[in-house]
Design brief:
Helix content is 73%, strand content 5%. By secondary structure, it is mainly alpha-helical. About 3% of the residues have low confidence.
C-alpha cells in the first residue's frame, strides 16, 4: 500500500510539467510506458483545468448574485472533482507504468478501457459537430435561444485523441511484454 501512496506523490509531481510534443503522436513508440505516462499526465491536467475553471466560473457567478453558500458549495464540488480526476488518472498510470500492466492481461484491460473511452469521446465530438450549425430551440414557443459553438466540440475531440494514444501505448506495451516472455521461455525451459 505504501508503494501506491508513494506513486500518488510521484504522479502529482509529474502533473507539474505536462508536455505535448511530436513524439507523443508516434504510432510505434520506442517506450510505450513513457507514451502512456505523457498522455496520462496531459489528460489529467486537461481534465483538472476544464473542470476547475468551469466550477470557478460558476462560483464567481454565484458570488455575483450574492449567493455565498452557493459559491462555497461549488468550491467544495471543485475540490471533489479535482480528487476524482486525479484518482481516475492515477490508477491506470500506476497499473500500466509502475506495475507493468499490473497483471497478465492488465495492459489489454486498460487498453480496452481507453479504446472504449476514445470511441465514446470521438462519437460525442462527431455528434457535437453535426449539431454545430443548427439553432438550439428551447422554451414554450420553440424560439431560437442561441447558436451552438463548434469550438465546444474541441474538448471531446482532444480527450478522444488522448484516450486513443493511451490505448496504442497499452497495446504496444502488451505486445512487447509478450515478446519478452516468448524470448525468455526457452531460457526458462533449459
Amino acid at each position: 500500500m505504501a508503494s501506491y501512496r508513494d506513486s500518488m506523490v510521484e504522479y502529482g509531481q509529474l502533473l507539474r510539467s505536462p508536455k505535448l510534443d511530436l513524439s507523443m503522436f508516434d504510432l510505434n513508440p520506442p517506450d510505450p510506458k513513457q507514451l502512456f505516462q505523457d498522455w496520462s499526465v496531459l489528460h489529467c491536467v486537461s481534465r483538472l483545468f476544464c473542470g476547475l475553471s468551469f466550477l470557478v466560473v460558476l462560483a464567481i457567478s454565484e458570488l455575483n448574485n450574492f449567493d455565498i453558500p452557493g459559491a462555497i458549495s461549488f468550491l467544495i464540488v471543485a475540490l471533489g472533482v479535482s480528487m476524482y480526476a486525479f484518482l481516475l488518472s492515477h490508477l491506470p498510470w500506476h497499473c500500466v507504468v509502475k506495475r507493468s500492466g499490473c497483471c497478465g492481461p492488465g495492459y489489454i484491460l486498460w487498453g480496452l478501457v481507453y479504446l472504449l473511452g476514445s470511441v465514446f469521446m470521438l462519437e460525442k465530438w462527431y455528434h457535437l459537430l453535426l449539431m454545430g450549425g443548427r439553432i438550439i430551440l428551447t422554451g414554450d414557443g420553440m424560439e431560437p435561444r442561441h447558436h451552438f459553438s463548434t469550438s465546444l466540440a474541441l474538448g471531446p475531440f482532444l480527450f478522444g485523441i488522448a484516450d486513443l494514444f493511451m490505448f496504442i501505448a497499452c497495446f504496444q506495451a502488451s505486445q512487447r511484454a509478450r515478446a519478452r516472455e516468448t524470448l525468455a521461455a526457452p531460457l526458462l525451459d533449459s
